[in-house]
Amino acid sequence: MNILFLSFTKNSLTVQEKKADQFLSEHNFPLSNVAFPGTFDALATQLKEKYPHTTGAVLQTSSSDFYTLYPQLDPLNASCQAIIKVLSEALNIPILTFEEADSADNLAEAFKEKVEQLTWTLDYFGYTPGKEEYSVESLLTVGNGFMGLRGTIPEMRLSKEHYPATYLAGLYNEEKSEVAGQIVENEDFVNTPDNQFISVQVEGTNEWLTLEKADLTLLHRNLDLKNGLFTSRLIIADSYQHQVEITALKIVNMAKMNNYSIKYMIKPMNFSKNITVKTMTDGSVYNFNVERYRNLTAKHFHITKLEAEKNKTMIRVQTNQSKIDVQQSSQISGDFFTSNDVKNSVNEETVEQTVTFYAEKNNTYTLEKHVQVMTSIAEKNWKTPVAFPVSFDTELTESAAAWKTLWEKSDIQVSGDLMSQKLLRIHTYHLLVSASPFSNNELDVSVTARGLHGEAYRGHIFWDEIFILPFYILHFPETAKQLLMYRYNRLGKAKENAVESNYEGAMFPWQSGLDGSEDTQKLHLNPLNGEWGEDHSVLQRHVSLAIAYNIWMYWNNTGDDRFIKEYGAEMLLEIANFWRSAATFDEKTDRYFIDKVMGPDEFHEAYPDSTESGLKNNAYTNLMVVWLFEELETILSLLNTQETAELFTKTGITQENLEEMNTIRKRLTIETNEDGIIAQYEGYFDLKEIDWEQAKATYGNIYRMDRILKAEGQSPDDYKVSKQADTLMLFYNLNKDKIDEILAELGYELPSDYLEKNLLYYLNRTSHGSTLSRIVHAQLAEEVAFHDLSWTLYQEALYSDYQDIQGGTTAEGIHTGVMAATIYVTLTTYAGIDIKKEKLSIKPNLPDHWTDMSFNLSQKGISYQLTISKTAVQVLANKDTTIIVNNQPYHLNTQEQQTINY
């Protein structure tokens, strides 16, 4: 193994390369105008080019030496650990400090342990208030599927600099606001009361140690992905130079949905004096996470009860319009006070609890705060809550055990790529924070587009479910079923939505929240020019197709016929009937068309110069409708005569309706050209082209070309520009063979290489304004053997939230869709798993620098343990079964590991 030894000297970095004890080379990299992180990013690029085969490094410079050499660097944000993090992640290798390397008996083993640590933890050093801090807080969120707490430290309160928040799944409220002279109603995901604030004050001062006013010399936050433990350590001083080290630990108990706990440790570093510690129950909070929403009504609840007694507090609030009750009960304890020592101050919206004690220099004093959160929409739990927390250590032990069971089912282990391994675990962690088997069986909710991490998209549920559900289908099918039941429970509202828009069947809303009403906003703010414009995204009717697809995926992978008979067939039939009613026969073409829709692209809302919104014959929509009509036939065949009759009676759908669907599926329209390009929608080929190079030169970030064009007084409706995959989404959902069948049934004949041509055509016209765009294109690029392109897009998708590549969107919550999609593509594209077939099918396709990957999955009631390398598949199944590897069948015996070479 090649190891680099890094040493910073005045104006240069000295690098020695060694293999075992053999010296290989030495090189100096000159440094000037040193700045963090730019200088170290640039250094990493140079090191990567010069030492492509390095497996690890050791940083030999000590902290004291380093800041003497580079006094322009801020020790808070550019600490040695922060620099190591930048270099390690950019080089994709573990880096040890000199102390770590010196104390190691075996350097190779030390690097291995470092990799294990790095791939299971998330670390942030320093503090940059504002949008960057907001993003860090999103990524450090702890939760359990019911509750999410953003990754703030206890000393933070709501402000533009940082944003503590407590989110509860399914908690929405609707309020009116005045926008551009209009009164609009918006349903929002509610930020509930905050019980996390804790701070200290030293005797003789009137200063509470908070980040806004005190002198901060160290802040390190760590999230342990294995057990959901958040740890912060800060060294902070008031204006009298009283320096205090504070360590805080925080968990949301994965095993008990209502509970979270904080352990708060105080250590005076240079004094012995009285210290007062204060903690709050704060009902004054409001929604503030998303900057563009801040002019809207932000207070969504009122306090109905607020009380305190000794070491306990209780706050109960009710949302203003939705009338949902939320109750938070708290209790504090510690090794330096009793309940009788606690002083309570009950104010109009807050309770302040204080304890004053004498603190000896260098002694550590520990306070624990336990909070139980309940909401009336989780009815069973509201009436019979789980046991109140007893101690932090007990809660942590329970939660860690629950996390262990989740990781055993969902972890993907990748060899040979530190950062891909780390990011896959970060994504898995945040999906389990957003919905988990331990909480969701008590809830009537689905996974929001931004998890339980932020307020973007108002916490609504979108078509992102089409990317999210496969994660749960593969690993936690019971949770997937619960998420589908969220839609079934709102089927009645979907039917009302259809009637209101003059359709039949069920038209699910583009944005769904509490009750399944259409909650899409009518106005949208363009942050580039500060203007509000009409929002037509409600026309993305393909959300119903996403729901239908997920129902089919769940059934196809689990074989749960009972779900189909009781719920699934009804939903599919109602959705299919909606699309039947949306199709119109055109006598001139002798085909059917579907109009008044928007595709997944989202940039195109209407035709150029049209006074009406909506497009005609969107290819993604039309071909997915054909797919639905085909699969409906298979689904209905599962029902016996009586079940079928009951279903038709319940839905009012007739045999004649089914016959019309059968006719439509063979005569629906798409538009193609002579090169085999499938038009995104009818008339797409007539649009103007964009000068992409000029746009990049002018604007740099062109992800949101729609906003750029509108700010220039133009319209994206006039141009061949897409936010994300639209036509190409067909090949993400269905394989090419299935698309070929559909095109043949419709009577369209395209050249054999039409997928490659369509991929390149639309890639050249896509701005990737959605993080989902890259992962869809990555899968398709791999399918047509564009391996380098696939890997580049896959990596961009993996890093998209971690590096906040869209310039601040992570601040408003993580992107659950892309996080789930990266996991799905890792399994389907690189491991080669196909769960759409009757039997588990595998065509291994590991990236060049991955040695192997191991994972578990569930299909049709069988649990598989798989390890895939470049030459073999190692598999263990818990039941007798047959799998297909590279198109060859292999029989597996129960609990008998088999190695299949290829």
Automatic annotation (TrEMBL):
InterPro entries per record: 6-hairpin_glycosidase_sf (IPR008928), 6hp_glycosidase-like_sf (IPR012341), Gal_mutarotase_sf_dom (IPR011013), GH65_N (IPR037018), Glyco_hydro_65_C (IPR005194), Glyco_hydro_65_M (IPR005195), Glyco_hydro_65_N (IPR005196), Malt_Pase/Glycosyl_Hdrlase (IPR017045)
Keyword Cell membrane: no
GO BP term (any one): carbohydrate metabolic process
Annotated ranges, domain Glycoside hydrolase family 65 central catalytic: 425-823
GO molecular-function term, one example from the UniProt record: glycosyltransferase activity
Chain ranges of the Glycoside hydrolase family 65 C-terminal domain: 836-892
Keywords per UniProt: Glycosyltransferase, Hydrolase, Transferase
A Pfam family of this chain: Glyco_hydro_65C
Domain Glycoside hydrolase family 65 N-terminal: 131-376
List of residues binding substrate: 463-464, 723-724
Signal sequence coordinates: none
Tree of life domain: Bacteria
Residues at the active site: 602
Protein family: Belongs to the glycosyl hydrolase 65 family.
PANTHER family recorded: GLYCOSYL HYDROLASE-RELATED, PROTEIN-GLUCOSYLGALACTOSYLHYDROXYLYSINE GLUCOSIDASE
Official protein name in the record: Glycosyl hydrolase
Organism: Enterococcus termitis
